[in-house]
Amino acid sequence: MDIKRRYSQVLQYFESNNSVAETELHYANPYELLVAVILSAQCTDKRVNTVTPALFERFPNAEALMHSHFDELFPYIKSISYPNNKTKNLLAMAKLLVHNYKGTVPDSVEDLMKLPGVGRKTANVIASVIYHLPAMAVDTHVFRVSRRIGLADDIHTTPLAVEKQLMEHIPQNMVHKAHHWLILHGRYICKARKPNCEKCGLTLCCKYFELNYTQNINPQ
Fold first, then answer.
1. Of 86, 121, 177, 207, which is the active-site residue?
2. Of 86, 139, 177, 207, which is the active-site residue?
3. Is 71 a catalytic residue?
């Protein structure tokens, strides 16, 4: 199957079966999503969602967070992975957000990446979810699923390389949804250790399924 046909079938399947795809992080505004995404690095959305209600009640905006300090903020996120670094990043991010952007979360990937704790993946998430810009955040799920299905060639061995290939083939108006489609598919179906191919609707256009099942090769 050529790559254009594979993309077409994958996107058509997702559009038909999950037309409304959204982040599982809980947030009420761009500031809250920015904080939640920073916290979600190497941590589950479920865990993040358990700590953010109290966090956002105490620090409802960047200005409130800016005026906090390490010993006050740390207890709110101590159950999150890497709490020391994330506490420092959140405090620095809030100060820069207030001083440079008047507390408003910027809408460009370049400006977002200037904020402490915000890498390319986080910036793409914010740009995609909040502003519906054609930005593809390649986390571990997107990276794994894209390569398994065959949306990304084996030669694309970095998140940035996979991002570029996905952006080349996915229509711009579908990128913000495709990001969530791939994440959710990786989280619940195409799992890291053992993909649940029996419940997957993409087997007819999946390179992994073709190699491991239709050719009688044991799954890896």
1. 121
2. 139
3. no
Structure token pair of residue 152: 């990304």
* Residue 139 annotated as catalytic: yes
The alpha helices in 78-158, defined as continuous H runs, are 83-101, 109-112, 120-129, 140-149
Cα–Cα distance for residue pair 170/181, rounded to 1 Å: 12
Which tens digit of pLDDT belongs to each residue from 87-130? 999 999 999 999 999 999 999 999 999 999 999 999 999 999 99
Cα separation, 13 vs 17, whole angstroms = 6
Enter the pTM of the model. Answer: 0.86
Distance in angstroms (rounded) separating the CA atoms of residues 75 and 69: 11
Q: CA–CA distance from 43 to each of 65, 176, 205 (Å)?
A: 21, 22, 31
